[in-house]
Design a protein that fits this description.
globular; 3-stranded antiparallel sheet; alpha+beta
Length: 72
């Protein structure tokens, strides 16, 4: 049974279970709040600020949907 996160963010769920991983939070390598990576490196990097974590995940969800459409 799908959890509410899986229902709300199917592309993020698919990404982390079969394609790559995500990172949340700024660090010494990136000022973006959220990013998606795979074995080849950075696939998508979000903005430095979002009003809420939900907004950050919404942006990531959209970006991964577009990435999937263009790369499969």
């Amino acid at each position: 049974m799908a959890t509410s996160f899986e229902k709300s963010y199917p592309n993020i769920t698919r990404w982390v279970t079969s394609q790559g991983w995500i990172e949340v939070g700024q660090d010494e390598y990136s000022s973006s709040l959220v990013r998606a990576l795979d074995e080849g490196g950075m696939v998508w990097e979000g903005s430095t600020y979002y009003g809420t974590l939900e907004e950050a995940f919404d942006a990531l969800e959209t970006a991964l949907a577009e990435w999937s459409e263009n790369n499969h």
